[in-house]
Amino acid sequence: MRARPPVSAGERGAALLTVLLLVAVISVLAAGALEKLRISTRLAANANATDQARAYAYAAETLAQRRIDDIMERDAARTTLEGNWNGRRQRLPIPGGLATATVSDGGNCFNLNSVVSGAQGLEKQASPYGISQFEALMTLLEIPPQEARTIAVSLADWIDTDSMPGSGGAEDNYYAALAEPYLPPNMLIQDPSELRAVAGVTPEVYARLRPWICALPNNEPSPINVNTLSPEQAPLFAMLIPQQLTLERARQMLLERPANGFSSPAAFWKLPALEALVPPMQAAEQIKVRTRYFNLNISVELAGAELSETALIDATRTPSRLVRRQWGDPS
């Protein structure tokens, strides 16, 4: 039997170094694999939690619609604040988390789409009434008149179906010349956040307007329910007849509203404080005592996942109908 040649110290050292390097490489690979597994597990858990949270949001949506139906069935002629439902945050405990739902009157706002006129499916053109009402609201919110005029006319240009700018407005040529060009959609706005892209609207102006505006699924003037309008929302009433009604007077009238509300728009306009006022026919018709649209805000917290939903509900018929739904915080 031939004797194995002796191994030198250098060879033994090289072999040991190779083994150590292999161990180090395997350790790094194993650590990477474990980290990927941990991340994958966490992502899967988050996805499951988000899916579960979404399911709870759908359930809360259904419960809220039933609540809206109950409100509407309580009195077929009018919608009042009875039951303290408007803007009230309802807590809905769920296994391992919490859901909240808030229902509010969705028509007490300025409908951005009302700056144009024209029936559904037909061409839209600027509405002088809607434009002047938007101007009035902005002026009441202390936006300079010239700035308010530019924004209101530019919004009408943004929505109308022609490419001719109104006086002081903006159309395709204006937006195409911007550093980052884009074009107006020439269609009804789907979300109030679209206003930020309209000429003249700065972040500061948008922040001031956001609590007062909405984008209803039509271009009709907003149905202002004087039975649910709060004194803090007095600008939405004063904008109807800005030359005749001061903000303070509008606020005071809402404070003096009967506890059970008004039985009809006619009963409201017969108030002694309003007898001297001569509202335009369109403004008089905007006043309602029954709510059509409801806003629904839902928030779900579950296993580290947070989910928000906003929805618009049409209560024209029973059961009420979901008009649109949006995930994420309102912008």
TrEMBL record:
Any one Gene Ontology BP term: protein secretion
InterPro entries: GspK (IPR005628), GspK_central_sf (IPR038072), Pilin-like (IPR045584), T2SSK_SAM-like_1st (IPR049031), T2SSK_SAM-like_2nd (IPR049179)
Gene3D superfamilies in the record: EpsJ-like (1.10.40.60), GSPII I/J protein-like (3.30.1300.30)
Species of the source: Sphingomonas sanxanigenens DSM 19645 = NX02
Domain T2SS protein K second SAM-like: from-to ranges: 224-280
Principal location: membrane
Keyword Phosphoprotein: no
Keywords for this protein: Cell inner membrane, Cell membrane, Membrane, Protein transport, Transmembrane, Transmembrane helix, Transport
One cellular component (GO) term of this entry: plasma membrane
Protein name from the UniProt record: Type II secretion system protein K
Membership in a protein family: Belongs to the GSP K family.
PANTHER family for this protein: TYPE II SECRETION SYSTEM PROTEIN K, TYPE II SECRETION SYSTEM PROTEIN K-RELATED
Record bears the keyword Cell division: no
Domain called T2SS protein K first SAM-like: residue spans: 108-218
Subcellular location: Cell inner membrane
